[in-house]
Task: structure prediction
Amino acid sequence: MSESTRAAEESATDGAAVARDEEPLLKVRGLRKYYFEDDTLFDKLLGRDPTSVKAVDGVDLDVHRGETLGVVGESGCGKSTTGETLLRLREATAGTVEFDGEDVMAMSREELTRFRKRAGIVFQDPFSSLDPRMTVGDIVSEGLKIHDLPEESPDDGRSKREWRRDRAKELLERVGLSADQIDRYPHEFSGGQRQRVGIARALALDPEFVVLDEPVSALDVSVQAQILNLLEDLQTEFGLTYLFIAHDLSVVRHICDRVAVMYLGEVIETGPTDAIFESPKHPYTEALLESVPRASVEEQGRRVDALSGDVPSPRNPPSGCHFRTRCPKVIQPVTVDIPQEQYRGVMDLRNRLERQGFSAASVWETLESEHDGDEPFERDTVVFKEALRDEFDLHGLSGATMDTVEDALEILANGREDEAAQRLRDGFASPCEEEDPLLSDDRHAVACHLYADEDYDADVDPDRVGNPMAGMADVRQPDADGAANGSAGDGDR
Amino acid sequence: MSDTAAAGESRGAPAGHPDDVLRVRDLSTRFFTEEGQVNAVESVSFTVRDGEIFGIVGESGSGKSVTALSLIDLVDSPGRVTGGEVWYRDADLAEEFRDRLPDAVDGEFVDTRRLPKGVRRALRGPAFSMVFQDPMSSLNPSVTVGEQIAEAVEVQRRATANPRRTRSRTQGYGMGKLIADTLLPNRGFTSESSMNRAIELLEQVGIPDPAERAHEYPHQFSGGMLQRAMIAQALAGEPDVLIADEPTTALDVTIQAQILNLLRDLQEQAGTSVVMITHDLGVIARMCNRVGVMYAGQIVERGTLSDVFETPVHPYTQGLLGSIPDLDDPAPRLQPIEGNVPSLLDEEMGGRCFFADRCPKAMTDCLQPISEYDADPGSDEHTARCVLAEREFSEADALPPDHFDRNEEVRGDE
Ligand code: SF4
Ligand code: SF4
Result:
């Protein structure tokens, strides 16, 4: 994904469907945060190349004044790193962050100090994020002290220290604690109360913008509801802008105005909350929403088509669309036309061979362990192939497709894994693995090839997967045609 | 068996449904800490039927996990199960102890609390086994996953070799046992066959390349795969009752969906009964037939899923349901329960409804110990530990809002 393309789009279409008059308070473009492993001097001496872990891999976000933008995703998707990097609590590898028109990445030390007054953060863990040796009064007023506030001695004769203490009391009261708890220590408080202290600390400097990093995930539901209500009240009262990072979709739906869904370091869908929840576009968003257990009797016995497998490691994200190794709708090449489950099965087999060190030996071993009777175990290729057909849902293929699959199974049974993978790759490579889909440029934006053609052919039905994908060449083409964009009725339908 | 049960009051197993495999009565567990006696589980009663998923839902500190540990006698010092009965249906076991320990036997039921400690512990595995939130609490980091499961298999085989336990069960469960019986006519105890069985179990719980993964160490597994491995380990004993304590809490939602599907398969195909312990009302709703809601060590409401979710009587249950944001219908404002959970310290509990200090409907009637009442709405299994099951709320009897501020030391004043 290239941020230069994105930037070009930005200026060309002037935000296109984003009908906002004002500039966003926070504007993130192409944010990247890579970590390097095996990067010590010792590793260099051994001639090891550092491995990069792409925790955040080209994220664009806009947060408008007074709104709550939710950033949601599963563990390891990079959502917390995004929050910390855009506040410069971690140094970004690349990308720009503009806060109220100022370039955060280029800020000098003083500018950064001023920025920190305006942008705060509340952390997830109310237990480890508060210094156990400090009283809550000191914790809440620490920021005031660091910023040497108040600037002038108060004219009512209080010392600066007294002023800070009074301010801390006010804040404690405001977040629902009592002022006379000011000299207590964090361990004397429950989890919910500590999170209130964390919120009071973040509010001490009167910020405009607060990153809330999983602020309620460690709390029980009854306490969680108290804190969510508090956050909403504070937002109204102080006109705060929130970036709300969470994995709990119900919480996100409840509190956010807009949502960005992340997967493996990228934003794969973003839009108004109702649009995302009521008509999700990206297959991953669909799967996420489908997976959440609802607390109602209709949920009873509901069987979810669970996504298969685990999230791949960010050390080695899949080429093209990062979601393709699990995507139930992964697009078939023009040359293949088989039921989607079987295509998914072929891709799963390939994926295991290519990425997970799947070996014929392990299949034989499993077969041997299942073998019963007194006869010694003998390797039977027919049994081997049948086991794989069962496991990967490969029954019922026909024609050329079947031939390729059968070939590959035969090769695999003979222990030539790489060759089997190659055979499958040649026969079944998906357009999804060639190009990383770009986030489209509408209010309800999605990064998925299924939607690439929407503006040109409004009839394309993204649910009709398994069809050859027409016009793959157009996929990368940003829709510079803003008019077609609008009339196609994109966005949140 | 229900006629025998009817004969005695606290003697013999409680009456119940003919399909009950477990009947728990008045189970209490205390922790004797430096700060004082903590009443973690307070007179808890419930039943679990063949092949059902019974849910226990509660927030932290509600006693739900300690209840699980108490069932299988895993409570460690300074905690102790101080009272109550755990009646488990096992005809052979009942036969064995009928004469020796007549108090511990009623029909096909045996009160495991009255059995000698050794026998009770031997039931772990073949009768009950447990899956925890944190797989590392039951997997040893320095032994391969396969070996650990094979070990569990061998323990089970030794137990089955014991003449007492070579009975055939009338029910259709024990699928693994059937497989083992057909595959291993001689019941050899070689570790190779145990390892084969371990591989089979890993395959059954959906671990790809089981033969290869069996040789790997726990740290080489992802969170979801570890959870599967732990379930495989728990299944090695072919338990009648699988106790799952927050089995998906540490997992991402797409992985959670996989594990819940797996547990559902086990329950449906192998007929295993599951006690599902969680704080997540959504997980309860998807998985459970019947539910108990725990608060401050007690089951405050129980019944079918719809009793509890559609017609809750206890204000705590209502509050819990009002606290969760709804994914499909975002309510403008949540209705949280004010205040905090009580400390469970014996001296601070008082002889009253434990929820009274947070309850919007607390009345003078609530200032005495509250027993479990039949609750009218819903099914006839619906009970609540709340006076509202018996009477209407009346403004005239309501406690003044500051009642507890004046009368008790305030703990947690959110
Ligand atoms: S681009 Fe392909 S693999 Fe990725 S989400 Fe869309 S259909 Fe699935
Ligand atoms: S018994 Fe009284 S205080 Fe307790 S939950 Fe019922 S109404 Fe509320």
